[in-house]
């Protein structure tokens, strides 16, 4: 019966199983790359595992450097300085990095006054 229908309606390929579904990579993985899985490795001793770890760390650092250059990391560190619960809260050096990036002149006394005002208003515990 399928052959009769295909010849009657001039259908050349009646088998729909010929088409292979194309898989697509999820959006969150499109910018990166994968060298190997985190499953089983053939490392037989600690030194081989250390070599694998160092290689992975180098690749991760290279990827972070490619994604977040010097300006972006400076902006992230300066944003961290604006959080009252941060250990670097109003760190003068990091804030100066941000002020240089945006060409804003910040004096040390302004930072000191801001710290005293904010510490009086924010409970850091």
UniProtKB/TrEMBL annotation:
<protein>
    <submittedName>
        <fullName>Uncharacterized protein</fullName>
    </submittedName>
</protein>
């Amino acid at each position: 019966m399928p052959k009769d229908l295909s010849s009657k309606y001039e259908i050349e390929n009646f088998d729909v199983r010929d088409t292979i579904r194309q898989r697509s990579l999820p959006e969150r993985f499109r910018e990166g790359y994968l060298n190997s899985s985190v499953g089983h490795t053939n490392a037989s001793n600690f030194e081989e595992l250390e070599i694998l770890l160092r290689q992975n760390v180098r690749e991760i650092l290279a990827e972070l450097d490619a994604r977040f250059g010097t300006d972006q990391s400076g902006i992230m560190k300066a944003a961290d300085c604006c959080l009252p619960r941060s250990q670097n809260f109003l760190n003068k050096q990091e804030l100066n990095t941000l002020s240089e990036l945006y060409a804003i002149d910040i004096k040390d006394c302004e930072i000191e006054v801001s710290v005293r005002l904010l510490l009086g208003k924010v409970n850091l515990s």
